[in-house]
Design brief:
It is built from three helices and five strands. The protein is α+β, with helices and mostly antiparallel strands. The radius of gyration is 14 Å and the shape is globular. The model has no long low-confidence stretch (mean pLDDT about 95).
């Protein structure tokens, strides 16, 4: 994998992977759940076709969990890729609280235009 920089744009709800030329080569779209507890909720992981197979999605998922750990909050993944990544990396991705997952699903259903 070529060097990428990962940048969090919290206001936009995006974690971007930036290639060496400054191009966004992938991203995770997420929102911040406020109740019943704080959590980052990844909804979609997208890697540009020309950059697939380079480990970018995994780097994004790893950084999302690292951000949550630094902030002392949970991750409640709804994105199928992040769910599978977390299952393969339990040492980096603690299992999500079922109550947070339910609340995240409810929030997403109440905001269908967000994603």
């Amino acid at each position: 994998m070529s060097e990428i920089e990962i940048r969090d744009d919290r206001a936009a709800g995006r974690l971007d992977a930036i290639g060496g030329d400054g191009e966004v080569v992938g991203h995770i779209e997420y929102f911040v759940l406020e109740a019943p507890g704080h959590a980052l909720v990844p909804v979609h992981t997208i890697v540009e076709p020309a950059h697939e197979g380079q480990g970018i999605a995994g780097s994004l998922a790893r950084e999302l969990y690292a951000m949550a750990k630094r902030e002392g909050i949970a991750v409640a993944p709804l994105c199928p890729y992040v769910v599978k990544w977390a299952e393969r990396h339990p040492e980096e991705a603690p299992a999500a609280d079922p109550e947070l997952l339910r609340a995240a699903k409810d929030w997403l259903a109440a905001h269908p235009d967000r994603f």
